[in-house]
Specification:
Helix content is 34%, strand content 19%. With 488 residues, the protein is α/β, with parallel strands linked by helices. The chain has two domains: 3-254 and 469-487, Rossmann fold (3-Layer(aba) Sandwich); 278-464, Rossmann fold (3-Layer(aba) Sandwich), CATH 3.40.50.2000. α1 crosses α17, α9 (278-290) crosses α12 (366-375) and α13 packs across α16.
Length: 488
């Protein structure tokens, strides 16, 4: 089938490497380009953050005559196009007072006070931009709450009658929730401010707008798509999602193996392949030296954690079992991350007696995270919920065995090890409690002491294909299904 007829606009609030706070940026930075390689005619639209222009890519103003309404106020803006060879074209909505700031959404003191204004404007500006094009999209792919009003505006505009909308939820925990007095800024009439519309327990939600008004909803793993339709994971939106069950889809994220592979990674001290893991032992020695751990850990399992320190991430489950891990199981533990102050203090206190076997590095450091991926024997991810997760995918590629709670994308990507058959790619536990987590680690340590089986498990993980090329084909199937409706 000729995919060039499949004209798509992909809209997100961030995209790697230009502007990033989380996994959304990785998706927006990779999926459109993978779809372009499948000959999809796709354009990307982003806010014109300071970071985007500081990235140094050539750009040109392609429209200087557009405006969008914020309530009764008309706001002019420019559209700039980034020049990137062999990549999907990127258009940025450029208005200095909205986006020329040090951070994307807020600072250490919290969210920017005017995020409602900023992203209402962004949604209306994107709609105005699409109306100005001679490029008529067949599908508009919106991502997360920042874009949630776009399906509403499109549904109300006859110009988009033949265009389908797909709304992807990357994390339901971020809902774009604002007070009722901000609703008038949307320009929508009061009929949209009700429980079957945007109203959400006395406030209104931009995320809910996308869930209600888009033609279809997707999220970033099949298990998470099911989980968010339950009260436990649905963040009080499970009823909305259950009402749309037939049009809720779960599609796994992918990995850019050009950037994440131990065969080519220049950030690690030695490269290695599935057929020759000698370089991984060099990486382990490097990690032990860098973290000032005992050299005796070269013969013991070293567990890495690379995470935002947050209750969602299950980091609190580690503190009660830390002594058991280090004293009884004889493991080393390296934790990299920042976040919740209480969790940071708890980890520091729990780890104080274990100098030489415990290292806690409190910062964001991508180079060190890669050295942990390459040098650790296991990667622990005890999340309470995890829409997809990428670090477990990176870990498998680096021959580092994941130990994860079987939730969301972890459940879809990590298969339980059978030490008798050598099948599986990692170790999982069901309940978000310390005891279950400890049991999974105990099993992992037991298999670590079976070198031939361990090597087989490493090989299993390193041979898995979670590439964006594979993920893009799944999105392409959904795009076709949605756009075929227009011709039926």
């Amino acid at each position: 089938m000729d995919n060039t007829a499949l004209r798509v606009v992909f809209i997100a609030a961030e995209a790697a490497p230009f502007a990033k706070t989380g996994g959304l940026a990785d998706v927006a930075g990779s999926l459109p380009n993978a779809l372009r390689r499948l000959n999809v005619d796709i354009r990307v639209v982003l806010p014109g953050y300071r970071q985007v222009f500081e990235h140094g890519l050539p750009h040109e103003a392609v429209r200087t005559d557009l405006h969008a309404w914020l309530g009764s106020q008309r706001l002019d803006f420019q559209v700039r196009k980034l020049s990137i060879e062999n990549a999907a074209p990127i258009y940025v909505i450029d208005r200095e007072d909205m986006f020329d700031r040090p951070h994307l959404y807020g600072n250490a003191d919290g969210d920017y006070y005017d995020n409602a204004e900023r992203f209402i404007f962004f949604c209306r500006a994107v709609t105005a931009l699409m109306q100005s094009w001679d490029f008529t999209p067949r599908l508009v792919h919106c991502n997360d709450w920042h874009t949630g009003l776009i399906p509403v505006y499109m549904q109300l505009d006859p110009a988009f009658r033949q265009c389908k909308t797909l709304f992807t939820v990357h994390n339901l925990g971020y809902s774009g929730l604002f007070t009722s007095d901000k609703f008038a800024l949307t320009g929508l009439d009061a009929s949209h401010y009700q429980p079957n519309g945007l109203e959400f327990y006395g406030r209104w939600s931009m995320l809910k707008a996308g869930l209600v008004y888009s033609r279809a909803v997707s999220t970033v793993s099949p298990t998470y798509a099911r989980e968010i339709q339950t009260p436990e994971y649905g963040k009080a939106l499970d009823g909305v999602l259950r009402s749309r069950q037939a049009s809720v889809f779960g599609l796994l994220n992918g990995v850019n193996y050009e950037l994440w592979s131990p065969e080519t990674d220049s950030s690690i001290p030695a490269q290695y392949t599935p057929g020759d893991l000698s370089g991984k032992r060099i990486c382990k020695a490097d990690l032990i030296r860098a973290c000032q751990l005992d050299e005796s850990l070269m013969e013991c399992p070293v567990i890495g954690i690379i995470s935002r320190l947050d209750i969602q991430k299950g980091i609190d489950l580690i503190i009660p079992i830390l002594s058991e891990l280090i004293e009884s199981l004889k493991v080393g533990l390296v934790i990299l991350g920042t976040g919740n102050e209480t969790l940071q203090q708890g980890l520091q206190r729990a780890g104080e007696p274990y100098a030489g076997r415990f290292a806690f590095i409190q910062r964001f450091d991508e180079e060190l995270s890669r050295r942990i991926l390459a040098g650790a024997d296991m990667l622990l991810i005890p999340s309470r919920y995890e829409p997809c997760g990428l670090t477990q995918l990176y870990a498998m590629k680096y021959g580092t065995i994941p130990v994860v709670r079987a939730t969301g994308g972890m459940n879809d990507t990590v298969s339980e090890v059978n030490e008798h058959t050598g099948k599986g790619t990692g170790f999982t536990f069901k309940h978000a409690d310390s005891a279950d987590c400890l049991t999974a680690i105990q099993k992992a340590v037991g298999v670590y002491r079976m070198p031939l089986v361990w090597r087989r498990i490493q090989s299993n993980g390193m041979s898995m294909d979670f590439s964006w090329e594979k993920a893009a084909r799944n999105y392409l199937l959904l795009y076709r299904e949605l756009t075929m409706e227009s011709t039926n």
